[in-house]
């Protein structure tokens, strides 16, 4: 999976990674926010969810200590990372700026 993750973040388009856990209440809120963000940004960015319980090594490699944590990568480079729930406008604008 780690190899696949590396390929995933080598994208020319910004890739927003949502590090989440199934037991996390705020993650469910973030997930519904991201559905709207995806509609807003369309094909200009990708949104990928990674379950930290299923892929703990990837979470650890990326310094994820709490969920939800969102990270934006482009061409393999980490451009932005923050924990907590973020709103539709903030994330839409963020991805448009990086696109």
Q: What key phrases describe this protein's structure?
A:
99 residues; Glutaredoxin; 4-stranded mixed sheet; 4 strands; 25% strand; globular
Strand fraction: 25-35%
Shape: globular
Runs in which pLDDT lies below 50 for 5 or more consecutive residues are: none
CATH topology type: Glutaredoxin
State the major sheet: 4 strands, mixed
Helix amount = 40-55%
SSE inventory with pairings:
Layout lengths: L1 H8 L5 E6 L4 H17 L4 E6 L4 H6 L7 E6 L2 E7 L4 H11 L1
In short:
This protein is α+β, with helices and mostly antiparallel strands and 99 residues long. The protein has 4 helices and 4 strands, in the order αβαβαββα.
Structure description:
The protein is of the alpha+beta class. It has one domain: 3-Layer(aba) Sandwich (Glutaredoxin), CATH 3.40.30. It has helices at 2-9, 25-41, 56-61, 88-98, and strands at 15-20, 46-51, 69-74, 77-83. A four-stranded mixed β-sheet has the order 2-1-3-4, covered by helices on one side. Strand 1 (15-20), helix 2 (25-41) and strand 2 (46-51) form a beta-alpha-beta unit. Helix 2 (25-41) packs across helix 4. It is globular, with a radius of gyration of 12 Å. It starts with a helix and ends with a helix.
């Amino acid at each position: 999976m780690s190899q696949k993750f590396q390929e995933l973040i080598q994208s020319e388009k910004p890739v927003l990674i949502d590090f989440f856990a199934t037991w996390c209440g705020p993650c469910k809120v973030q997930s519904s926010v991201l559905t709207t963000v995806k509609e807003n940004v369309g094909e200009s960015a990708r949104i990928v969810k990674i379950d930290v319980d299923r892929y703990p090594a990837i979470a650890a490699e990326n310094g994820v200590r709490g969920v939800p944590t969102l990270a934006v990568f482009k061409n393999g480079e980490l451009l932005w990372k923050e924990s907590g729930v973020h709103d539709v406008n903030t994330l839409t604008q963020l991805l448009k700026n990086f696109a």
